[in-house]
Structures are given as structure tokens and as C-alpha cells.
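residues and backbone:
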Amino acid sequence: MSTVHLIDHPLVQHKLTLMRRKEASTNSFRRMLGELSTLMAYEITRDFPLQDLEIETPMEKMVGKVIDGKKLALVSILRAGNGFLDGMLNVVPGARIGHIGLYRDPETLQPVEYYFKMPDNMGERDVIVVDPMLATGNSAAAAVQQLKNKCQPKSIKFMCLLAAPEGIKTMQAAHPDVDIYTAAVDRQLNDHGYILPGLGDAGDRIFGTK
């Protein structure tokens, strides 16, 4: 069974609380998401393997350690997942970017794919799939399944801002090999599949739409 990693750093929790407030503006919500995703990126990349790199300091030559960003892909579940990208690229600027477009059928709550675009050589890459909300888990599970079917990456992790117990259960049942990284596990879903207490529709709050 996959592991749920709760990123409970004080700065993460502080920014998340400010983002949850209904009076938070689009500008402040977007800015804090970028800051928070940078902080979360430090945690999710903690166990990434390092490679030796010979460099020359002002004093002498040495061998240092680096993460090979060319072997990392960040995959955004459109459109809200894009809110994570800039902040994460602050930490791993060499990462490649992929996108999966999914929308949730309002009647069945099941995901429908409309877009899939990935970098080259995905079979050689470690992948972090990003989406702010793990609600029912159906979209996340579908996105990961499409990655496995079409790309077969070396490894996959999933990162979200908020997770509901129902979404965690769905993801762990469908993909027990994919660890989940989140800033909070909230109480439950409502009848419309929204997380409670949650923070509303993340995509609308990032982009200022309704």
C-alpha cells in the first residue's frame, strides 16, 4: 500500500490556512500557492537519487552532488495543476513538463480525458503528478493510469494541496505503488464531490473564474 506523506511544516500550514479563507483574493491565492508548492517540492524531492558532478570552485576542483533535472517530469492535471508548476520549478528548474486534461462529469463524477502531452523519453523519468485537490480520486487515478499505459515512467508520485479520505482510498486501491504527498487530509466530501472544509474550487480561485 502506498504511503500518505503529510507535509506539516509550519510555513506550509500557515500559507494553507491563509489560502482557505474565502476572502483571499485571486492574486494572494495564486501567490501563496506558488510559495507553498516550492516548500512542498523540497519534501517530495527529499529521496531523489543524487549524481556526482565534477566542478571547479574558486579554490579547487571537487566532485559535488546534483539531481539530474532532465530525468524529472512534472505532470499537471489541467487546469488547476498548473498552479503548482512555477513554484516547483524554483526548486528543480531542469524538470520537463507534461499535461493531462481531464474534466469531471457532473453526473457520474467520473473523469473524461481531452488532452495528453508529455516530454520525450518518459520511460527514463521520475514523475511527479500535481493537482491541488485529491477529492474523489477518480481524476488522479485516471491520470496516473494513462501515464502507466502510455509512458511507463520509472516512478510516479502524486502531490496535492488537500486530500479527502475518499480520494486517498481510491488512489491507494488503484495505484498502491504511488505515494501521496499532501499539506492536509480534510474531513470528507460533500454530495457534489467537493472537499470539506476544503477551500472551494482551486482552479477558479487560481485563475479568477467561476
Notes: The CA atoms of residues 123 and 153 lie 4 Å apart.
